[in-house]
Backbone:
């Protein structure tokens, strides 16, 4: 994989009179695993909302695989291969894990990821597509990659939190995305669960571009090829994990005097 998966040029966004993104420049190469870190309220999730089409930028440009997608809607971006981790609320609690994945595979094909149909229509869609080997295979691959085989036929709403988060990621994968934006994939997990999730993330992102927002710096340094630091709506540094650890401006603006491994 060569070229740029994602490029942001001078992206701004304000809420009311408050500027939250103040000219973000960011380039992520294809196949790269990039972590985005920064203090609470720095604008990380807002940035994902702008890239993912949930919010329009005030100014600036967003390019996906070289194509200007500024202001494009979420379902169009999904069709172009941009996947976002869904919050657990986006999981269909009353469908099985496998049906959730089939639905994601189906919606990914039709670019409807962000406009999931109501349950009634969903059943009609699922039964219409249920014999499509392509959809089945895609769901099955996600099931195996996220180690969800043992709960394939459990109702998603009955899963524990950590497993729901894995399903969440499975949904993004099954949709066929080549570029994944994951907002705090290990949030709420204990250390053991987080370490397991990081190992899975490493595997499932092997042939993809991954941009992840993460507060768990152990996870960041274990996973990321490069790290960008967002402070007050601007990227103040980008570098390898070692470079970021050593960066004085990063320490001053974000990490203070505390050793990084102690900050979560
Ligand atoms: N829809 C919104 N309307 C108004 N203000 C918002 C909205 N979304 C975010 N903000 C504000 O924008 C700022 C940045 O929020 P954002 O959620 O992007 O931060 P973050 O870096 O993801 O923080 P965290 O690490 O806590 O998740 C915050 O001050 C937040 O209150
Ligand atoms: Mg956030």
Residues:
């Amino acid at each position: 994989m060569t070229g740029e998966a994602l490029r942001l040029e001078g992206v701004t966004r304000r809420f009311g009179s408050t500027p939250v993104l103040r000219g973000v420049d960011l380039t992520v190469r294809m196949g790269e695993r990039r972590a985005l870190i920064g203090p609470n309220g720095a604008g990380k999730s807002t940035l994902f909302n702008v890239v993912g089409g949930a919010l329009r930028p005030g100014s600036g440009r967003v390019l996906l695989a070289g194509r200007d997608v500024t202001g494009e809607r979420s379902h169009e971006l999904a069709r172009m291969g941009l996947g976002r981790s869904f919050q657990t609320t986006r999981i269909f609690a009353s469908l099985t894990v496998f049906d959730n994945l089939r639905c994601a595979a189906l919606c990914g094909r039709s670019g409807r990821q962000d406009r999931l149909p109501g349950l009634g229509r969903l059943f009609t869609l699922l039964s219409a597509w249920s014999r499509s080997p392509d959809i089945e295979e895609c769901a099955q691959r996600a099931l195996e990659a996220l180690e969800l085989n043992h709960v394939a036929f459990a109702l998603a709403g009955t899963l524990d939190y950590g497993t729901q988060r894995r399903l969440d990621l499975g949904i993004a994968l099954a949709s066929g995305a080549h570029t994944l934006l994951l907002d705090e994939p290990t949030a709420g997990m204990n250390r053991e669960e987080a370490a397991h999730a990081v190992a899975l993330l490493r595997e499932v992102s092997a042939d993809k571009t991954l941009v992840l927002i993460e507060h768990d710096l152990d996870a960041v340094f274990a996973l990321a090829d490069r790290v960008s630091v967002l402070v007050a709506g601007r990227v103040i540094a980008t570098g390898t994990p070692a470079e970021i650890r050593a960066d004085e401006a990063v320490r001053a603006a974000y990490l203070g005097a505390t050793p990084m491994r102690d900050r979560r």
